Amino acid sequence: MEHWRIIESPPSCAAYNMALDEALYLRFQSEPAAPILRLYAWEVPSITIGRFQNYERAKLDMRRDRWREAPMVRRITGGRAVAHDEDLTLAVICSFDDLPQKSAAIHKTYALLKQPIVAALGDVGYAIHNAQSKHIEIPSVGANCFDWLGAADIADITGRKLAGGAIHRGANVILFQCSIQCDPNRVDKLKAALRERFERWSVKSLKWEGLTEIEARAAEHLTSERYQDVNWLERGIDRDFSSICR
């Protein structure tokens, strides 16, 4: 494709945010089209947990203080739990062919996808720590993604983690989700910087596009049938939803 789609969604509930990412991924898998950069926010403070994460441990670690009543939903990407509030979240849905470089290694794919994010954060004034090979230890290592910093993560020079992401991939399709802990007064500038940096990185234009009828319908279906399903949240019991986008 000659361009990328950019979709900016209004703040939504956690279940719908995760459902829409998967709906876009399934639609792209069913009928490859323009790759997607989606930017979104959260209607209320929410928690997402990784696909293979233990629910009881995550609930114990995450549902404290102001997060005690926060809605919790399981993602289809891996990794630890993330507490979402004023963070800017992005999703990339693309094929391996859409990446500037092709690699089957997931850590190399991750490194490629974080390049425009690192550049955009630098554009809005963050001094980025350049972690290359070693994990940076943070004392409290638990279920929370932002309590642990590895070489692949994005941090400032004080060691504060700014962004963490995770990948889900099919045969030739990638879903990358990333939470960016940005100061609220820099969010608009960061969105603009991300759009510019993704254009440079992909060497393709970004075009604003809304959801198709199939994508919107699939997102609503996944919201109720997967992301609000207690079996998915608590036990990660999976079901095949690929047919909803065909």
Quick summary of this structure?
By secondary structure, this protein is an alpha/beta fold. It has helices at 14-30, 55-62, 106-123, 187-202, 213-227, 230-235, and strands spanning 3-8, 36-40, 46-49, 72-74, 82-84, 88-95, 128-129, 154-156, 161-169, 173-180, 205-208.
Average pLDDT value?
Answer: 91
Shape field: globular
Query: Residue share in helices?
Result: 25-40%
Count of individual helical segments: 6
Q: Please identify, by name, the CATH architecture.
A: 2-Layer Sandwich
Radius of gyration: 17 Å
- Can you count the beta strands? 11
Distance between the termini: 20 Å
- List low-pLDDT spans: none
Q: Keywords, please?
A:
11 strands, alpha/beta, eight-stranded mixed β-sheet, 246 residues, 6 helices, three-stranded mixed β-sheet, BirA Bifunctional Protein, domain 2
Structure description:
It is built from 6 helices and 11 strands. By secondary structure, it is of the alpha/beta class. It has a single domain, classed as BirA Bifunctional Protein, domain 2 (2-Layer Sandwich), CATH 3.30.930.10. Strand 1, helix 1 and strand 2 form a beta-alpha-beta unit. The two termini are 20 Å apart. The model has no long low-confidence stretch (mean pLDDT 91).
